Amino acid sequence: MKLRAHAYGSIAFVERNFALIKRYIGWELVFLSYNIVNALAIGLIGATTGKEMMLYLIVGAMVWGFLSILFHEISESIAWERWEGTIEYTFMAPIHRFTHLIGNCLHAVAYGVVRSTLILVVVVFFFNISIHNANLLGLVIILIVSGLSFVGLGLVAAILPLLSTEKGVYATHIFEAVLLLISGVYYEIDVLPAWIRPLSYISPATYTLRAMRAALLDGASMQQLLPTILLLLGVGFVLVPIGMFIFREAEYYAKKTGKLKRSG
């Protein structure tokens, strides 16, 4: 019965977040259009040097688009609460924080899948790409397990807007930019300077991109993808509880110091 209540509560947060998207549908169309054009532009840049590079860059743009949506939606969920003026009501409501956070995470995954699917359809038709040899099952599994890792990172980053109204939001964007730099989205990590390259090996996006390219471009089998899938799954199972714990501690501090008010 308690589990059912948590499930209903999480679904309610999913519905609320989609209602917010509907409320700002104009801006959502703007961002979607920008993401589509960005993916197409990156693919056209790659087309100038050959089809292989074009596909390499397109996969990078698509995967990063999905992962960045997860990270962005979760990490800025607190900022949305402040902008809407509901942060005090949400955090003082008689609902478990786990229910609240899981609802936000489920919304981010669903939203990311919908947007990424739309972009993928447009890109495939625009460049007339054949995906018959791709391992689509492996692709879906990798997206799911890598999503867990970014959910955990998003929960950690979400404490920044909780503790600081404006500076926290800026910090989450810096965090995302660093992940983009070190994860080999548009290039191999070997070209990075030696002093920053070690950071690439602790970014889950690095392994996600490699596995996605192998599944889509090389048709890698499930057996070949299994080590990376298990690695990402393990990272996700570690990061999500850590993210939940850090967020709970930050919430306690914010309530104790009076930082939940809209003005921060």
Automatic annotation (TrEMBL):
Compartments where located: Cell membrane; Membrane
Domain ABC transmembrane type-2 per the UniProt entry, residue ranges: 18-250
Keyword Transmembrane part of the UniProt annotation: yes
Membrane-spanning segments: 25-47, 53-72, 108-131, 137-163, 225-247
Membrane topology summary: Multi-pass membrane protein
Molecular function as annotated in GO: ABC-type transporter activity
Family: Belongs to the ABC-2 integral membrane protein family.
Keyword line: Cell membrane, Membrane, Transmembrane, Transmembrane helix, Transport
One protein family per Pfam: ABC2_membrane
Entry-linked PROSITE patterns: ABC_TM2
Gene Ontology terms: cellular component: ATP-binding cassette (ABC) transporter complex
Protein name from the UniProt record: Transport permease protein
